Amino acid sequence: MKSMTKLAAYLRPYRQGVIIGPLLMLVEVVMDLLQPWLLQNIVDLGVMKMDMAVVVHTGVLMVVLAIVGAIGGSGNTLLAVRVSMGVGADLREELFRKVQTLSFANLDKLGTGQLVTRLTNDVTQIQEVVLILLRIMVRLPLMLVGSLVMATVTSPSLAVLFLVLGPVLIVTLVVVLGRAHPLFMAMQARLDHVNTVIQENLAGVRVVKAFVRAGREEERFGDANDALMTSTMDAIRLVSVILPIMVMAVNAGIVAIIWFGGRMVVHGDMEVGQILAFVNYLLQAMMALMMAGMLMMRVSRAEASADRVLEVLGNEPVVVDRDGSADDFAPRGHVAFDHVTFSYDGEDAAPVLQDVSFVAQPGQTVAILGATGAGKSSLIHLIPRFYDVTGGKITIDGVDVRDVRQDVLRKRIGIAMQEAILFSGTIRDNIRYGRPDATDEEVIAAAKAAQADRFISELPEGYDTAVGQRGVNLSGGQKQRIAIARALLTDPAVLILDDSTSAVDVETETEIQRTLETLMEGRTSLVIAQRISTVLKADKILVLEGGKIAAEGTHSELLESSPIYREIYDSQLGHGNGNGNGNGNGSGSGVTAHG
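Above: the chain sequence. Below: its structure as tokens.
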């Protein structure tokens, strides 16, 4: 219960319901406890003595008390639902807000599937337990203690049975539920995996169909689903022994009451109505214990979910702002890498980038080439501090990027990522995602610069065209052009294009580059490209290999000095400068190795 106790703070805004709810439940419990006593009076004072007035009056009173109890129970339920729904909504919002503060490194470790599970299923488990606690947790002790007291008042000699049955049920609950918690943890982990498989399949459904891998995906999902079912069955199988043991104990108690009570009735030491009342109190007490078993099972599962929720809430961003970080930053765009080393898993792990040093002057275009895995995307992700360097430093206008607040820094950097992510809404909303206050004229200007205005204008609703989930109703090239327009609209001092024209045709790419040449004036641009034709006019080209800068210079300089660059150039364009190995057909080996 330690994790659930930590989450109790989310009840504070609803303390009025938390206080009034139990009082209403107390009304219901008292009314329920009076029913067996009234039943005893009907039998002993009415039926046995043939007094119909007692039967009628007591019967009417029982109905009235039942109505009062129902009103109290209904009021408790309404308040419990309101509190539990509020707690669930607040917790889900807090989790979502926390996720927005986490760094890329945190999100890499947590994973999308796990976060989806924690924001949905885990919060639902906690929410349901809050509802149950406000209903049953209040009712259980009141009903259990009240039943024991009333049973003892009814027949002190038969009340000894509780001393036998109680310990048996309590020991069963403690043993079973102690073993159930790790099983529920395993079950939630299996649910994580199922959600991950679903998320990957739905995101890549077109790839699945293109490669006719539906069978394999069904098998993969089946394995994950079967593992979840097995884990769930293990947990349920364990806790399922609680109910039979409790029912057996209750039935044994009833048999004992009838046996011993019947003998007492025969000897004139007890009335028949007392036996009926005592049996009802026994049932109420045992029912309270059974409900306690079910409650503890649900709490045990919710405790597992609470552990996982607290893990997210307790996650601290890897990238944090330093004390005294600048909150006013208007750079010209002088970007410098000073012996930068970077590893995704800390200083002790193998570095992705090693001793990288270069300078991008304001207004320059720096192109970055290299094989897949050479560290191109890792390099540009360090500039807006998606990750922090492991060694060395990165400065903009001489200021270490770690000395600038992250939000302030990123507002001065525009980035079109390798995967063009669009959000549900209109095309206009997506373009001005980084500048919600941008005018329609500015949106159109940015779209024209990204060569997107033409195809947008041809759509039936133009800029008000709704974008499907993840931009499903747009082509890859169209999504990339919208992403470039989004980056340009922020008017950044530093513009980063992470292979952002890979999905457009060569003609469109040429038009984009021609327009960008004008827009890039006065701003520093870093361009990752797979096509060497994209970077021929760059002021500086960096060739990365194995996380290091293998060559640096202009196109003509690299043709003379870099065998790697010549190989890329020859393989893609099919001609060289004498030293190249161009053969006019592009063998493709260079593209595979370095493109």
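The two ends are 55 Å apart (CA to CA).
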